[in-house]
Automatic annotation (TrEMBL):
GO molecular function, one term: oxidoreductase activity, acting on the CH-CH group of donors, NAD or NADP as acceptor
Principal EC category: oxidoreductase
Start and end residues of each NADH:flavin oxidoreductase/NADH oxidase N-terminal domain: 5-340
Organism listed in the record: Mycolicibacterium chitae (Mycobacterium chitae)
Domain of life: Bacteria
Gene Ontology CC: cytosol
Membership in a protein family: Belongs to the NADH:flavin oxidoreductase/NADH oxidase family.
Protein's name according to its UniProt entry: NADH:flavin oxidoreductase
This protein's UniProt keywords: Oxidoreductase
Keyword Ribonucleoprotein: no
CDD domains the record matches: OYE_like_FMN
Amino acid sequence: MTAPDLFSPATVGNRAIENRIWFAPCTRHRATIDEIPTPLMAQYYAQRAGAGVIVTEGVNPSPRGRGYDFVPAIYTDEHEAGWRPVTDAVHQRGGTIFMQLMHVGRLSFEEYQPAGAKPVAPSAIQPDPDFRGYTWTCPRPKRAFGQPRALTTAEIHEEIEWHAQAAVRAVRAGMDGIELHAASGYLVNQFLASSVNHRTDSYGGSVANRVRFLLEVVDAIVAAIGAHRTAVKLSPTFYFNDVRDDDWVATFSHAARELSSRGLAFLEVSDYGEYYSYQSETRAVGLMREHYDGFLVANGGYSRGTGADAVAAGHADAISYGALFIANPDLPERFRHGAPLTAPDPTTFYGPPTAQGYTDYPTWDPRAAVGADADSANLAADPSTFIPQADQRGS
Ligand SMILES: Cc1cc2nc3c(=O)[nH]c(=O)nc-3n(C[C@H](O)[C@H](O)[C@H](O)COP(=O)(O)O)c2cc1C
């Protein structure tokens, strides 16, 4: 049997997919202020339907899960109805689409919370204002996060239930599955990280206890929509948003082994290299491959060349591209032909909620390709364009 390449078909869950070039979840701040998807979003995702799988931007599953303006949600009938045109548009173009569920936890403000309460977290620990403990939300200025309050054990169970309900709504809205955002310092990652989770109940302390919330959310979603429709994103080496772990190798090895036994659709693993990341001989994708038996999607700074090499070598089963897919809606076609790539414009990543820098990136025109510089197809996304610097934020 020959080694797979980026264009080898595969089966994910019970969906046949055409290639291993996926669209990584990317928050774009183009929903309404009431967290409802817009027709512009349907157009944007349909443009990218050539991806093996689209994973949507982070979508808020719970009233306590909101942290931004113009980011969509999936916990009311209105949200659910708003997603239907998105899934229809992608399916009409033959695509596969998973919704990412993103509960922000402590990365929020009282004005986004029910009854103006404090944002919730595993423990009442404020993100360090000197260490990315602030956000920038279009069109608002930069501001520091406050001190959250710790979820009670009963509220943890409520949040698990919100995730399961969100997954049911996502599938009812036509999604092929969901991906749980357990990366980048959001709620699930806050439970995983020893620096942020100081709980003394069964959700804190030991590795097994800190991983418990992740697994209970996954199990509730699996029970609601099936393992073949359930996926997870992890970023084991990434301490962005001020989440650190005493022993990330132990924590994430345990998480990977436990997830492995659940027969999920896929596990997406981000590794950002030098940006807000542990420097170690052990890299995240390799560690996950060692402990996770299922379909593994690698992410973080891949080019066409490095992605193809990783798949051919069996390090990963697919590659997800964030910034490059934002700027190149027809990325698989461009890779296939060695066509030049458009560079992403980070100034329009996080809104404003208009078509500019969103649905107006061009598709490649082969007739204009004479003399095109195929080497530029090896352009990799520069992480400094998506890791927020002093005046930006990201998800
Ligand atoms: C504009 C933008 C928004 C992002 N939003 C999310 C998000 O909502 N959820 C998530 O898991 N990752 C998010 N990310 C991270 C990407 O999924 C991906 O991990 C990262 O861009 C690295 O992949 P790349 O080098 O191919 O861009 C975002 C990245 C960008 C550029």
